[in-house]
Amino acid sequence: MATVDVVNMEGKKVGTIDLKDEIFAVDVNEHLVHLAVVQQLANNRQGTQKAKTRSEVSGGGRKPWRQKGTGHARQGSIRAPQWKGGGIVFAPVPRDYSFKLNKKEKRAALKSALSGKLADEKLIVVDELKLDEIKTKRMSEVLDAIKAEKALVVLGEKDETVIRSARNIPDTKTAVSDNMNVYDVMNAGTVVLTKAAVANIEEVYA
């Protein structure tokens, strides 16, 4: 097991914690991590782009002029793509970009992401995160004290005071241990876990 220092909200070491190797020390599967990140981004796409083809734009029910004898090139409709106001040739239509990953693949990708952060020394464990009031300045001071930049703060359970205090800090995100995702872990400069979050992650993913 990997032994990691536990710090308090002032950044001072208050103990150590053993992290399970089957979660925090697995061989990093870059392919699975990539798939998980692509899936997250794809599933977030709205896919609502839409343009009209020549069959959908209004007007153009008859030929603008007769086929021969005018000196013009032959035309069948004023809503053909080459006309101003005409339809788009291969118009985009709403679509669903999402795709699925197996549950085992998702779990393996998250383990790889967490193991990579620990190996890069970008994972910090704090004994607890408790704020008396919603205060962005106080939360910012805590992150500075524990030297967490571009942080993903993972809590053991939902705490609105911490979540709302961190909401306006640039490049800082919060998550609860049971709904964290690979993209947020990989995108974070530092992953900050509370001891409660570590316990939950080890219980669910071990």
Residue share in helices? Answer: 25-40%
CATH superfamily of the largest domain: Ribosomal protein L4/L1
Q: Tell me the series of helices and strands, N- to C-terminal.
A: EEHHHEHEHEHEH
Query: What is the β-strand count?
Result: 6
Cα-to-Cα separation, first versus last residue: 13 Å
**Structural class per helix/strand content?**
alpha/beta
What is the top-level CATH class of the largest domain? Answer: Alpha Beta
Strand order of the largest sheet: 2-1-3-6-4-5
Q: Mean pLDDT, rounded to whole units? A: 94
| Net shape | elongated
Number of helices: 7
Sheet having the most strands = 6 strands, mixed
Q: Number of domains in the coordinates?
A: 2
Structure notes:
The chain is α/β, with parallel strands linked by helices and 206 residues long. It has 2 domains: 2-45 and 98-205, Ribosomal protein L4/L1 (Ribosomal Protein L4, Chain: A, 3-Layer(aba) Sandwich); 47-96, no CATH class. The protein contains 7 helices and 6 strands; from the N terminus they run ββαααβαβαβαβα. It has helices spanning 21-24, 30-44, 103-119, 136-145, 160-166, 182-187, 195-205, and strands at residues 2-7, 13-19, 123-126, 151-155, 173-176, 190-194. The protein has a 6-stranded mixed sheet, sandwiched between helices. Helix 2 crosses helix 3 and helix 4 packs across helix 5. The radius of gyration is 27 Å and the shape is elongated. The mean pLDDT is 94.
